[in-house]
């Protein structure tokens, strides 16, 4: 029998202040990718952290 899958950790809230034009661009990009603005920002942050980790390994 395969091991039971662990439930994903619940998301936490992160609050950030950005200029209105940045928020508008994030909203537009999220709509174009059929995602929420929150999920787009989370993806951007995860991608940045991943790139940062790769750069540190060099």
Total strands: the figure is 0
Q: What structural class do the secondary elements suggest?
A: mainly alpha
Can you tell me the residue ranges where pLDDT is under 50 for at least 5 consecutive residues? Answer: none
Share in β-strands? under 5%
How far apart are the termini? 40 Å
**Outline:** extended
Give the rounded overall mean pLDDT.
93
Number of helices: 2
Helix amount: 55-70%
Q: What assembly state would you assign to the polypeptide chains in this entry?
A: single chain
**What summary fits the major beta sheet?**
none
SSE string? HH
Rg, rounded, reads 16 Å
Describe this structure in words.
- With 58 residues, the protein is mainly α.
- The chain has a domain at 20-57.
- It contains 2 helices and no strands.
- The protein has helices spanning 20-32, 37-57.
- The relative contact order is 0.08.
- The mean pLDDT is 93.
């Amino acid at each position: 029998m395969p091991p039971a899958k662990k439930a994903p950790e619940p998301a936490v809230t992160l609050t950030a202040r950005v200029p209105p034009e940045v928020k508008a661009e994030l909203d537009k990009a999220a709509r174009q990718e059929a995602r929420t603005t929150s999920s787009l920002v989370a993806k951007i942050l995860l991608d940045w952290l991943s790139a940062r980790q790769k750069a540190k390994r060099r």
